[in-house]
Prior knowledge:
Subcellular location: Cell membrane
Protein name: EamA domain-containing protein
Keywords: Cell membrane, Membrane, Transmembrane, Transmembrane helix
Family: Belongs to the EamA transporter family.
Number of domains: 1
Pfam family, one: EamA
Amino acid sequence: MNHAWTYVRLAAVSVFWGASFNAGELAIQAMPPLTVTAWRFLIAAALMLLLLFVKEKPSWSTLRSSIWVYILLGVVGVFVTNALQFTALKFTSPLHPALIMATNPIVTAFLAVPLLKENIRKGQIIGMLCSIAGVLMVITNGAFWQLTNISLGDFIALGANIT
Length: 163
């Protein structure tokens, strides 16, 4: 595969992911957050199932053996996260949830320690602290002492990040 095409696709993913917060803000002006979440979930699920059946052609026995795991992962990992993300947008600007969600690799790294027995190196911890400091800098407008003034939307976005 052409490496340039790979980079174009990676850039497109970044653009679409970043734009989803602004698009979400527009969507919740027209519908409640849970309705936006439900539509997003249904459209994405239909597209994913279509891709699955066209590209992989799984057998029903294979699907049946893991269907409840897939449903649980979809509900918790996608629906709940998006519901919290869209709800957060009712209380804060799209920039804040976008930045908070960008710290998701930090949450993943910390969960990997007890669950996968991973080790976090000193350099990784320094990078994580810099990332958290940057997010706090933006959501407090540079006034770290105003951490008590963080909006409800920021806390909801943090909950979305943890799910």
